[in-house]
Amino acid sequence: MTSPAEKGSALAGEEGQSKVWRARPASLFLRLLTKRPHMVFWRNAMASSERWSLFLRRVAFREFSEAEEMLAETPELLEERNGLGETVLHYLAVENDQEGVAWLHSKGADLNTQNEFGTPPLYEATLLGYKGLARWMVEHGARFDLKNDDGEDFRAFAEEHEILNRYEYLKSFQENQ
User: Fold this and answer.
1) For the range 143-146, what are the long-range contacts, defined as Cβ-Cβ under 8 Å and sequence gap of 24 or more?
2) Rounded to the nearest 5 degrees, what angle is found at the Cα of 176, between the Cα atoms of 137 and 132?
3) Which of 72, 123, 161, 170 is 20 to 30 A from 150 (CA-CA)?
4) Statement: the pTM of the whole predicted model exceeds 0.70
5) Where are the domains of the chain?
6) Residue 157: which of 132, 121, 107 has the closest Cα?
7) CATH of range 4-11+20-175; options 3.90.1150.180, 1.10.3720.10, 1.25.40.20, 3.40.50.300
């Protein structure tokens, strides 16, 4: 299985890939959050049920038949959340796992799910530089009008995080579909 950092590097090296879309390793974010003062927060934030964690592992490691069995027994796994309010789809989107996101979406998972902060996966994938995943999400119905807890839609989120050029690329792609 390819690590998120390797996926980000591969994305950054794609032909025609601009510096604007260079992926940021998620591990940097994890390192910042796991510094001593934040350890308790991080452990609580990542708290999830055993079945959520097992379902995540099944999808992440492409054990789709086992994941399908889990869904047959417990369909609400698609909507179950971890301590940050993330569904498995949201979590995998932040890890740039397009295959896992696509599989979950094909099983009925919502691309427009929002975490505890109201942030949908599209916004975070774009922020992290996952151009391929962000474009795929737009192709499959990810919305631009959802507001996070700060009242920001996608455009305002992009402006705040200085990624307006990424937003404009995705918006023009959406309009030309």
Assistant:
1) 143/112, 144/170, 144/171, 144/174, 146/112, 146/114, 146/118, 146/120
2) 30
3) 170
4) yes
5) 4-11+20-175
6) 121
7) 1.25.40.20
